Amino acid sequence: MTKQKVSFFWFRRDLRLEDNTGLFHALQSDSPVIPLFIFDEDILEHLPKNDARVTFIYDSLAKINSELEKLDSSILIKKGKTKDVWRSLIDEFDIQNVFFNKDYEPFAIKRDTTISALLKEKNIECFSYKDHVIFEEKEITKADGLPYTVYTPYKNKWLEKYHFSGSAPEYDAVPFQSNFTKKQFKFPDLSEIGFERSAIKVLPHNLTQIANYKETRDFPALDSTSYLSPHLRFGTVSIRKLVNWANRKNHTFLSELIWREFFIQILFSFPNCVNHNFKSNYDGIQWRNNEEDFKRWCSGTTGYPMVDAGMRQLNETGYMHNRVRMVVASFLCKHLLINWQWGEAYFAEKLLDFELASNVGNWQWAAGTGCDAAPYFRVFNPEIQQKKFDEKGEYIRKWIPEFDFGYAEPMVDHAFARDRAIATYKAGILK
C-alpha cells in the first residue's frame, strides 16, 4: 500500500497555533502537515510522576488538539526516546519535510543535530526557524563579532536593531490551515504517558496586572506580575506579540524580556556556564555546602521571613516573586556559602517557569560568578529587603502562618555571615 506523502511540524517549546514561525512555513509546504509532539523519555525519566509542568504541557496540547479538531485534523502524540520515535515515523509515513523551531539549550542543540542528521540520511528535508526569541545566536554582537557579556550594551544594540526593523514580524497561519492533515489521531490520557495530574496549577497570564510595573514590580504582596514566565517557557504565547506590545506600552517590562534573550545568548555562546562559573577566577571559592543548612533553606525554615516566605511559596505553588528570588539566592550563596549550583538545581526541580538559560544566568548573577554579575561584596540583607518591599508583612504572613507566634530565630547572624562571605570570596578569587 502506498504511503501518503506528508510533512511534519514538530512542536517542542512553542505550544500554540497562533504566530508560530515554523508552523507558518510548514503549512505552506506541498504536503499535508501532521502536527507532532514527542514526550521525550530522556527528559521525563528525571521528573516526578505528578510534575506540574508535564500537566501544563499536556493541557496545552489538549487545547491545540481541540482547535485542530475544528479543522478536521488532530495532533499526533508520541512518547519515547526521540531518535527511536523518529525512526518509527520514517517507517510509517512517506515524510517529505520536517519543520521545527530552534532551541538554544545544549541538550536541545545535540538532540536536533542528531535528528537532522537522521532525516538527511533518509533524504528528508529539514527546516528550522527562530521563534522563541527576537534575536538569536549571533544576531546581536559587538563590533568585533564577539558576544556581549554585559547586559546594558547588549540591550542598547538589541533596541537599536529592533527599532531599525520597525517591529517583530508576526506570522498569520490561518490562511494556510486547510493544509493540516485530515487524520484523526487518538489523544492519550495523561496516565498513558506515565504521569498523573498535578495539584499545582500554571496560572493564566494577565498583562493588565502590570500596568504600573515599574512602580510595583518589587513588592511581592501586590501580586502585580503578569504570570507570563511559564507561558513564555513553553511557548503558549508569542514573544513577538509580547515584545511589540511592550514596546508600545511598557518599556520596563520590555527590558525584562531583553534580559531573557541576553541569558539565552550567553548560554548559546558559553554552554559550559551550565556546570561551571562563568568567571573561572571564582573557581577557588571554598563553599561550605552544609547539607543541613541547605535543607533548612529548601524548606523555608531559616528564620529570615523574606527567605522563608519565598521558599514556601515556591514549594507550594511553583512560583516565586522576582525580588524574592534575588533575596533567597543571595542568602544561599552568601549567608550559607552554598554553591549556586545547588540552588539552581532546586529551582530547576520546582519552578513552573524553569528555563535553563535564565536559571543559570540569574543564579550566577546572585553568586557573583556570572557575566554582568552582582559584585561578590554585595550581600543582600534579608531584613532590610523585607522592610523596603514588604513593610507591613503581608507577603510574609501569607506564607508563614506562624510568623506572629513561635517563629524561628535566624539560623545565622547577618553581620557575621556577610563578613564570612566577603572573606571567603576574597580568599578564593584566583588572581
UniProtKB/TrEMBL annotation:
Cofactor binding, note field: Binds 1 FAD per subunit.
InterPro entries found in the cross-reference section: Crypto/Photolyase_FAD-like_sf, Crypto/Photolyase_N_sf, Cryptochr/Photolyase_FAD-bd, Cryptochrome/DNA_photolyase_1, DNA_photolyase_1_CS_C, DNA_photolyase_N, Rossmann-like_a/b/a_fold
Record-level GO BP terms: nucleobase-containing compound metabolic process; response to light stimulus; response to stress
Enzyme class: lyase
Domain spans labelled Photolyase/cryptochrome alpha/beta: 5-134
Keyword Nuclease: no
Record-listed E.C. numbers: 4.1.99.3
Record-marked site positions (Electron transfer via tryptophanyl radical): 287, 340, 363
UniProt entry keywords in alphabetical sequence: Chromophore, FAD, Flavoprotein, Lyase
Cofactor(s) the protein requires to work: FAD; (6R)-5,10-methylene-5,6,7,8-tetrahydrofolate
Domain of life of the organism encoding this protein: Bacteria
Residues given in the record as FAD binding sites: 213, 225-229, 253, 256-263
PROSITE patterns per the UniProt record, alphabetical: DNA_PHOTOLYASES_1_1, DNA_PHOTOLYASES_1_2, PHR_CRY_ALPHA_BETA
A GO MF term: DNA binding
Family according to the record: Belongs to the DNA photolyase family.
Stored PANTHER family: CRYPTOCHROME (PTHR11455), CRYPTOCHROME CIRCADIAN CLOCK 5 ISOFORM X1 (PTHR11455:SF9)
Protein name (record): Deoxyribodipyrimidine photo-lyase
